[in-house]
């Protein structure tokens, strides 16, 4: 599989993430967005697109490229000035994903990046003029704290995105899943938080088995009513032959198609 890693980065934060991907992913080309020609895109199976957040949305160069990546397999990653706050991050991520409605989204990672010193200086000046503005003070604190980001911990996290997965729901629930591992074995498990569980497996914190057999892909998942049915389903899937397990993905697609 040939991957293209493209980054749009005004001050270098998102470029740092892109470089992590370039080290993690085999057979990948790394390019700044200015060097990308639309005609190149068809030569790649997977596009990793790095953006920076501009006024709560995708930066202009990435938004322009987004118009040309419909139907493509993509992984999104980006940086923004705000400190990690899951509500704001989720809102921004969802807004950004609306630019890629017809693409197949295989992952999305967002983390804090430092803002320019000139922005920090501007906030300091503004606070002098409006000393009672609590919101502005909070923002300044956040930007000052963010000076070291993306830091080493941030840069470890996108490793998860080097492992393709179908779009994982944001919601907690009861999920049974199959991981395809580096020796082509299939690992079956269940969880209430599929995003976290998948991440733990990729980071070798999920299970003894996946620590020794690196996951290559979240091959399949389905949701269940409750914990008891998830456990039952996990047991049932574990009894299947390898061929039957591999067929689960197609069976699900057919079931969806038949409903139409
Ligand atoms: C014009 C401008 C608008 C920005 N808007 C936002 C924003 O709405 N929310 C946010 O959290 N950060 C915002 N930021 C901060 C950047 O997203 C952040 O510094 C990012 O890490 C820059 O990435 P880069 O170094 O790859 O260019 C903005 C920065 C600039 C210069």
Keywords, please?
binds flavin mononucleotide, Rossmann fold, alpha/beta, six-stranded mixed beta sheet, GIY-YIG endonuclease, globular, 260 residues
Characterise the protein shown here.
The chain is an alpha/beta fold and 260 residues long. It folds into two domains: 3-115 and 145-162, Rossmann fold, CATH 3.40.50.360; 175-259, GIY-YIG endonuclease (3-Layer(aba) Sandwich), CATH 3.40.1440. Helices cover 41% and strands 23% of the residues. The chain is globular and about 70 Å long. The structure holds flavin mononucleotide (FMN). Flavin mononucleotide (FMN) is lined by residues 9-14, 52-56, 79-82, 113, 115.
- Helical stretch tally: 10
The biggest sheet amounts to: 6 strands, mixed
Number of strands: 9
What small molecules does this complex bind?
Answer: flavin mononucleotide
Query: How do the helices and strands follow one another from N- to C-terminus?
Result: EHEEEHEHEHHHEEHHEHH
Principal-axis shape equals globular
Low-confidence stretches: 256-260
CATH topology (level 3) name of the largest domain: Rossmann fold
CATH class of the largest domain: Alpha Beta
Rg to the nearest angstrom? 20 Å
The average pLDDT score comes to 89
Tally of distinct domains:
2
Summarize the structure.
It contains 10 helices and 9 strands. It is of the alpha/beta class and 260 residues long.
């Amino acid at each position: 599989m040939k991957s293209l890693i493209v980054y749009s980065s005004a001050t270098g934060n998102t470029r740092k993430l892109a470089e992590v991907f370039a080290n993690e992913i085999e057979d990948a080309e790394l390019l700044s967005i200015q060097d990308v020609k639309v005609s190149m895109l068809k030569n790649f199976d997977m596009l990793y697109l790095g953006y920076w957040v501009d006024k709560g949305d995708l930066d202009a160069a990435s938004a322009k490229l987004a118009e040309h990546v419909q139907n493509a397999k993509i992984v999104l990653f980006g940086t923004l000035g705000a400190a990690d706050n899951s509500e704001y991050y989720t809102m921004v991520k969802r807004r950004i994903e609306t630019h890629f409605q017809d693409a197949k989204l295989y992952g999305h990672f967002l983390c804090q990046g430092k803002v320019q010193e000139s922005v920090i200086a501007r906030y300091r000046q503004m606070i002098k003029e409006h000393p009672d503005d609590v919101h502005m003070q909070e923002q300044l604190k956040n930007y000052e704290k963010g000076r070291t980001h993306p830091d080493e911990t941030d840069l470890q996290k996108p490793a998860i995105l080097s492992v393709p997965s179908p779009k994982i729901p944001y919601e907690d629930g009861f999920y049974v899943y199959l991981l395809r591992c580096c020796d082509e074995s299939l690992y079956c498990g269940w969880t209430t938080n599929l995003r976290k569980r998948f991440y733990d497996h990729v980071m070798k914190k999920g299970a003894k088995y996946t620590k020794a057999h690196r996951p290559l892909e979240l091959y399949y998942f389905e949701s269940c009513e409750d914990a008891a049915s998830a456990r039952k389903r996990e047991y049932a899937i574990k009894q299947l032959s390898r061929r039957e397990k591999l067929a689960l993905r197609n069976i699900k697609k057919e079931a969806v198609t038949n409903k139409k």
